[in-house]
UniProtKB/TrEMBL annotation:
Subcellular compartments: Cell inner membrane
This protein's name: histidine kinase
Protein EC: 2.7.13.3
CDD domains cross-referenced by the UniProt entry: HATPase, HisKA
Lineage summary: Bacteria, Pseudomonadati, Pseudomonadota, Betaproteobacteria, Neisseriales
InterPro entries: 2C_sensor_his_kinase, HAMP_dom, HATPase_C_sf, HATPase_dom, His_kinase_dom, HisK_dim/P_dom, HisK_dim/P_sf, Sig_transdc_His_kin-like_C
Catalysed reaction, written as an equation: ATP + protein L-histidine = ADP + protein N-phospho-L-histidine
PANTHER family from the UniProt entry: SENSOR HISTIDINE KINASE ENVZ, SENSOR PROTEIN CREC
HAMP domain segment(s): 245-296
PROSITE patterns reported in the protein's UniProt record: HAMP (PS50885), HIS_KIN (PS50109)
Length: 501
């Protein structure tokens, strides 16, 4: 009964997972609930942060481009006015006007006239400066369509050349540029516009953007913002870990209690924690008590039935001896023997599956070695290699399960090989015979009560067909698994998987 309840719980959990989670996602997700919740929380927070940052970065970028476009349009129109003004002046007046502008402290533009365009060492390519260039060119094409070529660049002031002879801004008097360009403290990029107002005369205009440090807005997600996002993620993960662990700890206790109950133990769940868990613990305790009472009543019922049936079966056998018809007497004897066998088999199945004993640490070499020695003394061919492994189990119950498997292998295969392997957190015991094997379609029925195949009836006519079912119930009560399969080289193979101690 313990095994049936535990198997039902496991089957329900497997079906629920199969219905609620796609197979591909099930392979990705961790197995533990705590890890799953943290994994989902991490993915959720990261996704929300990435989406939020993308929206915010797009908003900031659009806003920066709009502001830069408006500023570039304003500067372009001022530059167009300056070009038109200097175009209207006679060539010999232009140096005088420029000198007066410099002595007055300059205007919006630093102005110079050169006989050829000056080579400018521009700044690295960037979307915002490219936007400025596009807007200025568009304004010049609209306002001065007949103007010659226009050269536009951004340069840092410490590398800015202002004249054809190579003179730089740093060589100019301070009062010429102090009101136009930022040279000290935190220099800002300088916008340079050069246009040919007439052959051999290039007007040089240099100025700052309304927001001199507009390049700071070219990266809407600076490292400081990423650091803030990372700190937010770590904080959320820590809080989530605390909350999830607080929630899953009672579930882990419930899972351990259910697993222990499935192995025949009587675990106790503390009635503390959230209201939902207390109700669950109380319901689990009530279910455990009902199942235990049912098991006790079942054992008493089978014992009483076995005892009560033996007497009338014996009486019927005695009365059968008084029958004169020999054939009829033999038929009655066969029916009564079969009925007696079924009663004994049912009682044996109950008693062998519910052996009441405590778990202890068992050395498999000693237990299996004694059974192998007894089989060899009886003249059987059996081989076993020592493994040095231990398991936590009920000694009599585990010995009963192994004995049933070894006896079946000896009856039906004559030659038996036993091997014990160590896995990750488990021990695997393999009992292989060298018999004819079992048809594949009959493997699933071998654990059913009173199921015996044709060759089995000839090899062991006194069997009941209960040994494999009893062995599987005992192994499952230990939290393990028993699987039957045909060996590739012939014969039947029984593989027992038990948890390590």
């Amino acid at each position: 009964m313990f095994n049936a309840v535990w198997q039902s719980i496991r089957l329900f959990g497997q079906r629920a997972r199969a219905m609620s989670t796609p197979h591909w996602l099930e392979r990705i997700l961790p197995s533990r609930l705590l890890s799953r919740l943290l994994w989902v929380m991490t993915i959720g927070v990261l996704t929300s942060q990435l989406i939020g940052n993308a929206i915010w970065a797009n908003y900031l970028q659009n806003k920066s481009e709009q502001e830069v476009s408006a500023a570039a349009d304003h500067i372009a129109r001022g530059a167009v006015s300056a070009v038109e003004y200097f175009q209207s002046l006679p060539p010999n007046y232009r140096p005088l006007v420029i000198q007066q502008l410099r002595e007055m402290g300059g205007t919006r533009f630093f102005v110079n006239v050169n006989d050829s365009p000056v080579g400018i060492k521009g700044i690295s390519s960037n979307p915002l400066p490219d936007k400025v260039f596009t807007v200025i060119r568009h304004v010049f094409e609209q306002e001065l369509p007949r103007l010659g070529s226009v050269k536009i660049d951004f340069a840092w002031p410490n590398e800015l050349v202002v004249a054809s002879d190579g003179m730089t801004v740093a060589q100019l008097p301070d009062h010429w540029v102090k009101n136009t360009l930022l040279m000290e403290a935190r220099p800002a990029p300088v916008l340079v516009i050069q246009t040919e107002i007439e052959p051999g005369h290039w007007l040089y205009l240099a100025t700052l953007m309304p927001d001199p440090y507009f390049l700071d807005n070219s990266n809407p997600m600076p490292p400081e913002r990423w650091l803030l996002q990372f700190a937010t993620l770590i904080t959320v993960m820590l809080l989530s870990w605390v909350v999830v662990r607080w929630i899953t700890r009672p579930l882990a206790a419930l899972s351990e209690a259910a697993e222990a109950f499935g192995k025949g133990e009587s675990p106790h769940l503390p009635a503390e924690g959230s209201e939902e868990f207390i109700r669950t613990a109380n319901a689990f305790g009530a279910m455990r008590e009902r199942i235990q009472r049912y098991l006790e009543d079942r054992e008493k019922l089978f014992t009483a039935i076995s005892h009560d049936l033996r007497t009338p079966i014996t009486r019927l056998k005695l009365r059968t001896e008084m029958l004169d018809d020999e054939d009829l007497r033999l038929e009655f004897h066969e029916d009564l023997d079969e009925l007696d066998m079924m009663v004994k088999g049912a009682l044996q199945s109950v008693k062998d599956s519910d052996i009441h004993e405590n778990r202890t640490r068992i050395r498999l070499d000693a237990m299996i070695g004694r059974m192998v020695k007894d089989a060899k003394m009886a003249g059987h061919a059996i081989a076993f290699s020592r493994c040095g492994l231990w398991v936590m189990a009920k000694p009599l119950a585990l010995k009963r399960a192994l004995s049933n498997l070894i006896d079946n292998a000896l009856f039906y295969g004559q030659q038996v090989q036993i091997s014990v392997l160590e896995g990750v957190g488990k021990v695997v015991i393999i009992v292989r015979d060298h018999g004819p094997g079992v048809p594949e379609d009959a493997l699933s029925t071998l654990f059913d009560p009173y199921v015996r195949l044709e060759h089995g009836r000839h090899s062991n006519s006194h069997g009941h067909g209960l040994g494999l079912g009893i062995a599987r119930n005992i192994i499952q009560a230990h939290g393990g698994e028993l699987v039957l399969s045909n060996h590739p080289d012939g014969g039947l193979q029984a593989m027992i998987t038990l948890p390590r101690d």
